[in-house]
Amino acid sequence: MSDDPFLVAADWDAELAAEWAVRLDDRAADEMQVRLRRRVCELAGLRPGDHAVELGCGTGSLLADLAAAVGDSGAVLGLEPQPYLADRARARLAGSPAVTVHVGSAQTLPLTAASVDAVVAQTVLIHLAPATLDDALCEARRVLKPGGRLVSADLDAGTRVIDHPDRVTTRAITTYNCDYQFADGWLARRLPRLLRSAGFSVESVEIHPHLAAGPEGYMFAGAVRLAQAAMTSGAITKEAGERWIGQLRELAEAGSFLTSIDYYVTAAVR
Ligand SMILES: C[S@@+](CC[C@H](N)C(=O)[O-])C[C@H]1O[C@@H](n2cnc3c(N)ncnc32)[C@H](O)[C@@H]1O
User: Fold this and answer.
1) Pocket flag, ligand 1, residue 259 (CB < 6 Å)
2) What's 66's domain CATH number?
3) If you measure from the C-alpha of residue 169 to the centroid of ligand 1, how many angstroms do you get, rounded to a whole number?
């Protein structure tokens, strides 16, 4: 049973949606994430006048990069099942005539066959249940023109590293995170194989590590949230979790917080 909150994103109340919007925007502002979006656009091979669709566009940070790549003569469709996030994306892209944002899902694309040059997804496929993922890959292939590209960037949750003196609790927290907080925490490493099975030709697989060595960015708050989620689920005791978070804060105050995770960027051709 997965505790992945994005499996039920469409049903979030306004407060939860607003919390996630802030987290997604915090992550998007990180310099590493800026470079990651640039690379996704490069691999999508978009040119002025092209048509692209982004699955699960969230608050629209990647839409802005895609809009710049296709220019005003192109078209970018952002699909997002969570209405509040879709509104945020629409507001962000209000000045970009090429962009439209629809409330919708990756498994039913409102596009005709062979109509787009690129399908992109950033930290979305990792959150799809297996049957939904199969449908989404099938839909992506249907709407891509021959030679069109699918580019997906996803973290692999099994690559999360957190420096902490309590190894037992750290392992319990990262294992809970990988195995229960995503529909499939290992999706990124499996994706090339799944894409081949779905009829794509895989062009490249890249790893972009995200190393954070200070408490100021979203990675520190994220590490604390992992421990809180592991406590809530019962994967670790409240006592162990609170001790772990306290020690992490002490490390951070002493200038010794260190964490990393790998993002896999996979590009495939129809
Ligand atoms: C971790 S967020 C990433 C958002 C955005 N791509 C980004 O990088 O900031 C995952 C997104 O996938 C969306 N999502 C969940 N299920 C989906 C589905 N079946 N089809 C398309 N998007 C979905 C969520 O609503 C959420 O916006």
Assistant:
1) no
2) 3.40.50.150
3) 29
Total domains in the fold of the chain? 1
Would you list the DSSP string of 28-68? HHSHHHHHHHHHHHHHHT--TT-EEEEES-TTSHHHHHHHH
Cα separation, 61 vs 89, whole angstroms? 8
Segments forming the whole domain that contains residue 148: 5-269
Q: Which atom of ligand 1 is nearest to the CA of 61?
A: 9
Distance between CA atoms of 2 and 97, rounded to whole angstroms?
39
Take residue 41 and report the two structure tokens written for it.
Answer: 């656009």
Tens digits of per-residue pLDDT, 113-172? Answer: 999 999 999 999 999 999 999 999 999 999 999 999 999 999 999 999 999 999 999 999
Q: What's the gap in Å between 118 CA and the centre of ligand 1?
A: 17
80 CB under 6 A from ligand 1?
A: yes
Which residue, among 69, 60, 70, has the nearest Cα to 38 in the 3D structure?
69
